Amino acid sequence: MPHVYIQDIAEHVEKEVTLKGWLYNKTDKGKLRFLLIRDGTGVIQTVVFQKNVSPEVFQATDTLAQESSLVVTGTIRKDERALGGFEMDVRNLEVIQVADSYPISPKEHGTSFLMDNRHLWLRSARQHSILRIRSEIIKACRDFLDDRGFTLVDTPIITPAACEGTTTLFGLDYFEEKAYLTQSGQLYNEAACMSVGKTYCFGPTFRAEKSKTRRHLMEFWMIEPEVAFADLDDIMDLAQEHLCSIVQRVLTERTEELKVLERDTTLLETIQSPFPRISYHEAFDILEKEGTQTPRGSDFGGTDETIISSQFDRPVIVHRFPTAIKAFYMQPDGENPELALCMDILAPEGYGEIIGGSQRIHDYDLLSERIEEHHLPREAFQWYLDLRKYGSVPHSGFGMGVERVVAWICGIDHVRETIAFPRMLYRMYP
Length: 430
Ligand code: 4AD
Ligand code: MG
What we know:
By secondary structure, this protein is of the alpha+beta class. The chain has two domains: about 5-95, CATH 2.40.50.140; about 120-415, BirA Bifunctional Protein, domain 2 (2-Layer Sandwich). Helix content is about 30%, strand content about 25%. It contains 13 helices and 18 strands. It has helices at about 55-60, 110-115, 120, 125-145, 185-195, 230-255, 255-260, 265-270, 280-290, 300-310, 365-375, 380-385, 400-410, and strands spanning about 15-30, 30-40, 45-50, 70-80, 85-95, 150, 160, 170-175, 175-180, 200-205, 220-230, 275-280, 315-320, 330-335, 335-340, 340-345, 350-360, 395-400. It has an eight-stranded mixed beta sheet, sandwiched between helices. Strands 1-2-3-5-4 form a five-stranded mixed β-barrel. It has a three-stranded antiparallel beta sheet with strand order 7-9-8, with no helix packed on it. A hairpin with a 2-residue loop joins β8 (about 170-175) and β9. α4 (about 125-145) packs across α6 (about 230-255), α4 (about 125-145) crosses α13 (about 400-410) and α11 (about 365-375) packs antiparallel against α12 (about 380-385). The protein starts with 15 loop residues before the first strand and ends in a 20-residue tail after the last helix. The protein binds 4-amino-1,4-dioxobutan-2-aminium adenosine-5'-monophosphate (4AD) and magnesium ion (MG).
């Protein structure tokens, strides 16, 4: 019998097929057994009628606990009343394994219990939907950039120096040398874009963040485009188009999953370019009116981001932060060198920063000064400085944190559910 996936079941009505999957739920009614089976692509109700199967098969259905693995063969029937619109009349059933008593039931479990059982929790409808949406988002990112002539260049995970400040580095011994897990592929992207013009990297990045918030992970995935000859405005345009295309893709391709998550998509549906753009100081005017405790001149706190973003119905771009609180590589604004040519994009509905980007310093002497000022090890940055000696040009890029975008689009309030196996401040099991 041909093995088919549940998602393709409509093509097999009135035909006999084989399904392979796991038992999701079971109800007994006299001579009938209703087995709800999932196979990763969908869920279908299968009906085992005593008179249609051998006595052994009928008996076997009694031993089945949730998550038992099965191969079932039978005829597909169209049935409006059934979940998904189809049912299978089972002729034969083979049990691969009878599962132990499954620890996760439909009742409410505490977060800590669920996180301890993350390896199993992934099978639930909600987690399954998040995994699929995350996968779609990553594909949308890559398609968007690939279609615009970007070249994917993979950047290293093991690095000799910091990109985003020395306080959040994960150190490791690299034989006799000190090395660090990468915080961002940006510095290498800058080298790559001088070769291919438009580049991006996509990979895991690591930050030893001592903050226990719903937005921070120690290991997160970032998509980072970098463009030679681009300035801050160019990169803001690119970032907003990028976000619009991701949202559109998920809305059209992952409707079912959004339904499972009970995501109210009203605001997502209205998202389009252009996004409002406000300066750091304009953002602070809003914050001061709302009575923030954060002093002007410092970085926004989580609550500040929520306040700013809740003023807008679509993502908002905040640009030109004070140079003093930003990374060493950012180009100062020609009109006011106290400000950096940088931007953050804050997602609506209180999700906060999802993108950070900037124009990079392309002048050798200025960059060299900044490396001194930030007490960065010169030897480790020699190659980076070198880029400013051989046909240096203005260039810009940004980084988008995948988990934060998944949280926003799925409408879930903690990033721990946006990646299969989150690394958090006090948790790296399983
Ligand atoms: O603003 P960040 O630190 O920018 C950079 O790393 C630049 N080098 C990127 C670039 O220009 N190529 O981080 C970028 C994004 C943030 O906006 C956020 O979405 C995400 O990465 N991010 C985190 N996500 C989850 N957990 C954390 N600890 C994160 N830190 C940053
Ligand atoms: Mg940032």
